[in-house]
Amino acid sequence: MIIGTRGYPSYYGGFETAVRKLAPYLAEQGWDVTVYGRKGSTRQSDPGRDDRVRSIETRGLETKSVSTLSYGFTAVISALRRKPDVALVMNVANGFFLPLLNARGIPSLVNVDGIEWDRAKWGRIAKSVFHAGARATARHGTRMVYDSVEIGRRWRTEFGLDGEFIPYGGDVPADLPIEPGLTHRGFVLVVARFVPENTIPEFVSAVSEISARWPVVIVGSSGYGGEIEAEVSRLAKTDANVHWYGHVSDDDRLMSLWQHAGVYFHGHSVGGTNPALVQAMAAGAPTVARDTAYNREVLGDAGIFADPTPDDIAEKINSLMEDQIAQSDLSVRAHARAVDVYSWQSVCEAYERALLALVKAR
């Protein structure tokens, strides 16, 4: 059973992307797979849905502060009745409920995600809750999954735990038509949830300098409104060179944007291996990324790194937009690295090995 995502198939974020790849893979290998989710967050009529994967929706409170906890609790309660051989649990916020799984003899493989208590979007209380959830996960989880080497290092330092390094993967897209009104390598792209740790406020502050020379395409939203979303909306209405597409769930459309972008800006700062970055690499997007240990780990020599300031973001983006040779070189390097290191096949195989080890050790 898979607990802690919005369900299957869902297009919300990294966990959901992983489940869309992993659940059908496990079903193909003969596993009986159940994914817990939330009402209204999945596409049961999705043409890519695998009918061998069972979806169960549970109830919860759809608020920013308690949704993960409430849905995680109701999913675990349901899982206790069904008693699976093993549970794949996403997010340390669900660590509080792991003792319930242990009491029923259900081993857990826990993807700890990023360092949530470092995220700027959370207040003091929420950060304390996530840190407490991480401590509970460290104490009660059977085995950890770290999606980056750096995340694994943090957990070994803070909690003394080893685990499985399993990153996210990327799909190499076919050649796709460009979005109407745009030109190949002629626009700047950002794809992110509108939260401070994704460097969206700094990017938005840099937009006016960038859009004076190039079209800027912004994909994403906050999901809950707020100041950042209001400012992006204002820019899109007042600047003809700024295009806000909101949340894009059409994979081909998103792949096309990455494939044809002149520069993709990746501002995520506190995650591990970010699924959007890996997918952008697989699509060959020339990338300017916020300078963090996580982004350097994933990109290697296939990206340019910027400080989280509007001036440096604008300077690095404009410089790369002017250099077609550098764009081509970074595109080739990123694509090759994604294929060599971050394939979904190897990711799914690693998850299955980890799950089988827990079942055999039961």
Provide an overview of this structure:
With 362 residues, this protein is of the alpha/beta class. It folds into two domains: 2-169 and 343-361, Glycogen Phosphorylase B (Rossmann fold), CATH 3.40.50; 188-341, Glycogen Phosphorylase B (Rossmann fold, 3-Layer(aba) Sandwich). Helices cover 45% and strands 14% of the residues. It has helices spanning 14-28, 67-82, 98-103, 124-140, 149-159, 200-211, 227-238, 251-260, 275-282, 293-299, 310-321, 324-341, 344-361; strands spanning 2-3, 34-38, 54-58, 87-90, 108-111, 143-146, 164-165, 188-191, 216-219, 242-246, 263-266, 287-290, 304-306. A six-stranded parallel β-sheet has the order 10-9-8-11-12-13, with helices on both faces. A five-stranded parallel β-sheet has the order 1-4-5-6-7. Helix 1 crosses helix 13, helix 6 crosses helix 11 and helix 9 (275-282) crosses helix 12. The mean pLDDT is 94.
